Amino acid sequence: MMTLKVNGHDHQVDADPDTPLLYVLRDDLKLNAAKFGCGLGQCGSCTVIVDGKAVLSCVTPLVLLEGKKVTTLEGLGTIETPAPIQRAFIEEQAAQCGYCIAGIMMRAQALLQRNSKPTDAEIRAELELNLCRCGTHMRILRAVRRASQLMRTADASPSQRRTP
Amino acid sequence: MSTVVLNRRSVLAGGGALILSFSLRDSFAQDQAAPAAAPPPGSLKGAPYLDSWIRIDADGGITVFTGKAEIGQGFKTACQQIAAEELEVPFASLKLVTADTARTANEGYTSGSNSMKDSGTAVQHAAAQVRALLLAEAARRLELPFENLKTENGAVIAPDGRRLGYGELVAGEMLHVQAQARSMLRDPAAYRIMGQSIPRVDIPAKVTGGPAYVQDMRLPGMLHARVVRPPGYGAELIECDTAAIEKMPGVTKVMRDGNFLAVVAAKEYQAVKAMWALSSAAKWRETAKLPKQDNLPDVLTKLPSRDETIFQNNNPAAASARTIEATYTRPYQAHGSIGPSCAVAQLRDDTVTVWTHTQGVYPDRAGIAEILRVPPARVRVIHVEGSGCYGHNGADDAAADAALIARALPGVPVRVQWMREQEHAWEPFGPAMVTKLKASLDNSGAISDWNFEVWSNTHSMRPGGAGSMLAAQHMAQPFALPAPRPIPLPEGGGDRNAIPIYKFPNAKVVHHFIPEMPLRISALRALGAYHNVFSIESFIDELATAAGADPVEFRLKHLDDRRGRDVIEKAAGEFGWRKGQKAPPDRGYGFGFARYKNLAAYCAVASEVEVNRQSGRPRLMRAVAAVDSGQVVNPDGLINQIEGAILQSMSWTLYESVAFDDKRITSIDWQTYPILRFDAVPERVDVHIINRPGQPFLGSGETGQGPAAASIANAIADATGKRLRDLPLTRKRIKDAIDA
User: Which of B570, B582, B607, B577 is nearest to B592 (CA)?
Assistant: First the structure.
């Protein structure tokens, strides 16, 4: 048993210490967003945020996460009250099949948390690790730029933060 | 009560159609003429009863049924828009049920850019005819002329304000009547829902972690399974001691049936670990039978083929002044779904239910029933979204895997997901192809003679037959692979888009259909059209260069099709294409055009590519597309499809080829099968729609791939002065061509 902090809540997890975080999130905590894509750290579908950094959960064993804060897409907002990045992806209709999207959004979120106004080149460089097969890249880039705007606006006027 | 219902049923079942044809005769008179015996449109042909498509509950709740599936192309949203428009109800008021053998019509596969044409058309006409029946019923009850009534918000409204809800009007079997050939369709000029970029219904769940995919299913008591595939085609299991694996934590079952191996465990990662252990325990005998990858075009063209001249016209008067020829090749290419294939299955009460991201629930049911040796009625196949498939990937195989494993564990739901290496090695690839072109120019610089030959396998080995599924091939009592068949024209398979849309005085097109399949292949998005359009549109540029003509002007000179000319002119105009233009140093402009299948949507793409002369690295800087897909239902959805086509095609065209040695597929992950990454994404992609109000839906999922490929190849040729004819147009090939 170990304690894993995910989306602000402590969870008692009964899994082998070598279990990749991805399987704990999906199988033990029943979270959907982080996806199995390759299990090899090559595609980014499993990306989550650990202590503010984008991490490939499919190659990160549970044992390394003691005392760390894990955030998944579910932790950012909900379908009723989406977070700025979720609003941005909806407003830009930045998905086709959408299987890669949760991972891409988490990497973009980590970028925007440390750099609220990234250049286009910085966004592209950051997303280099993530694959999209449907060819939705143009919209994804637009959505990240829009998320950057929305997050800055939200910071400026906290009263509107909950507006979906 | 039952007597009343029976009376209503007998009256309405017989009379519904009559009411319609008498009451609506005047309205129909304005509609397009249809012969009396014409079948109803779209998929209504195969499933003519209106209540196969639309059901209305007594409380007014409306459910729309489609046999097609959402595969990331936005079909659910578009289909719902069509139904809402023709029923005159709010978009959000409808429920939509997609492909499910227990609930929806058999519409075959969700493929070929046919969903809008088949199912969108069926839903449109079914909705219009349901609305007409409701109007007719209201007219009868209110004793008012049909023409005086209108529909609004799910109700029929009389001039005096009396209102009858759809739910009140529908009774008994009123909608259990056969569709007619013609419908009182709404006037496109009055559309309120069709033609709007309504946000996709599936995206909010996908961006908030909602359960959106079959991968996300968690049934009570569900176990996790993994399969172990052979190391290569035809490998045989000679030894496998499973004793240690059966004792591993969480493992509930180790299955072996011939060369089919699987493990089942309580938790997913336990299943993965058991799979690795089983994989290590399995000893295989492999056979070296794959062809030489670097010699593939030669191998293909030397395989036995069935040759057919699929197009020929002759005009001896046309004189040829000079002739050029060229050979184009395409390697095997992968679907490369980001999420490996997955399925959930459960055997309960003698029925196996399979949740799968297959493109064809009914064909899958047939295949699975055959494998399980049960009647199809004992299998229910329900589509649940998966990762984008782009054709026949591992979805059907995973469905068969799940069904076989679930049968061995009665009552227990079993979830199977493939590993990345399995998807890459075992999916059926897009077939390798070779095209040989030869054409002549007359003294005026026009094409006087055109010869096109294409060598290809079939482009569909989809189930239907059990033998199409991997598990069935690997079982101790295997099912034979069905004999490959070419997909007939006019849609075609290897010869899809092989017949030129341009008008040439002399033309001959030969399809060399190759039955033997050295690698496992099936349908990859656009089928043969991708390579055929790449070949034709590259060669058109070679001829334009030989004629000293502008590529766009040269295309228009040989094209009569008005709508084709319109998309070419639109794309060229929006791109800023000018005759005699010259790109900046190390950049080039290119153009490509096709009408998908020569019968579906039109698409033209203009590109600007930059080539690094030192490294050879190509970069698509911007692309401008124009598309005519008939009546547009969701403009943003259409744009999303064309943007995706351009970027996916760019990835195929610049980077992708399946690698193999004499025994195994060796491109088994994203390192060994690289695809487009964000650093190579263009600066801009613009898509311009030419809407055709009231014209048939032409689909859009596969219209852009061929034109995009040719456009990029032509831009590389413009930038470098070198013509590359072997896909993919890699950095190394470009560098070698520059240095040659």
Answer: B607
CA distance B22 to B246: 71
Q: How far is A151 from chain B (nearest CA, A)?
A: 16
Q: Return d(Cα B514, Cα B466) in angstroms, integer.
A: 22
One domain, residues B64 and B81: yes
Q: Are B667 and B293 in contact (CB under 8 A)?
A: no
Distance between CA atoms of residues A149 and B665, nearest Å:
46
Whole-structure pTM value: 0.95
Among B147, B143, B167, which residue's Cα sits nearest to residue B29? B147
Q: Do A124 and B678 touch (CB under 8 A)?
A: yes
Tell me the per-residue pLDDT of A102-149, one tens digit each, with 9 for 90 and over.
999 999 999 999 999 999 999 999 999 999 999 999 999 999 999 999
Chain A's closest residue to B200, CA to CA, is A93
Are A94 and A63 within one domain? Answer: no
Closest CB to A37: pick one of B272, B338, B677.
B338
Annotate A97-136 with b (16+ C-beta within 10 A) or e (fewer): bbbbbbbbbbbbbbbbeeeeebeeeebbebbebbbbbbbb
Q: Please list every residue in chain A whose beta carbon sits closer than 8 Å to the beta carbon of residue B647.
A: 135-138
**Residue-level pLDDT at B172:** 83
Alpha helices (H) in B548-665, listed in sequence order: 551-557, 562-575, 635-655
Question: B483 in a domain, yes or no?
Answer: no
In a domain, A79, yes or no: no
Scan residues 89-108 of A and list those with Cβ closer than 8 Å to B.
89-90, 93, 95-102, 105
Q: Which residues of A are less than 8 Å from B388 in CB distance?
A: 96-97, 99, 133-134
Per the structure, the complete domain to which residue B672 belongs is given by 433-459+494-739
How many CB atoms lie under 10 A from the CB of residue B178?
14
Query: Model ipTM?
Result: 0.95
CB A27 to CB B268 under 8 A? Answer: yes
Best to test chain A binding among B206, B270, B667 (most A CBs inside 10 Å): B206
Residue B339 host element (H or E): none
Rounded CA separation A48/A33 (Å): 9
What would the pLDDT profile of B265-308 be if each residue is shown by its tens digit?
999 999 999 999 999 999 999 999 999 999 999 999 999 999 99
d(Cα B327, Cα B453) in Å, to the nearest integer? 9
pLDDT at res. B36 = 54
CA distance A121 to chain B (A): 8
CB contact, 8 Å: A73 with chain B?
yes
Q: How many domains does chain A have?
A: 2
User: Which of these ranges, B12-26, B115-129, B234-248, has the smallest mean pLDDT?
Assistant: B12-26
3-state secondary structure A59-111: HCEHHHHCCCEEECHHHCCCCCCCCHHHHHHHHCCCCCCCCCHHHHHHHHHHH
Output the domain CATH number for residue A145. Answer: 1.10.150.120
Q: Do A135 and B644 touch (CB under 8 A)?
A: yes
What is the spatial distance between Cα B60 and Cα B151, in angstroms, rounded to a whole number? Answer: 13
Which residues of chain A are within 8 Å of residue B387 when distances are taken between CB atoms? Answer: 35, 97, 99-100, 133
DSSP-assigned letter for residue B302: H
| Shortest Cα–Cα distance, A157 to chain B (Å) | 23
Same domain, yes or no, for B27 and B76? yes
- The first and second tokens of residue B9, run together, are 């049923």
B268 CB neighbours in chain A (<8 A) are: 23, 26-27
Q: Does A164 touch chain B (CB under 8 A)?
A: no
Which of A13, A23, A36, A119 is the mutation pick for testing B, counting most B CBs within 10 A?
A36
A51-54: long-range contacts at Cβ-Cβ below 8 A with a sequence spacing of 24 or more? A52/A110, A52/A113, A52/A114, A53/A110, A54/A106, A54/A107, A54/A110, A54/A111
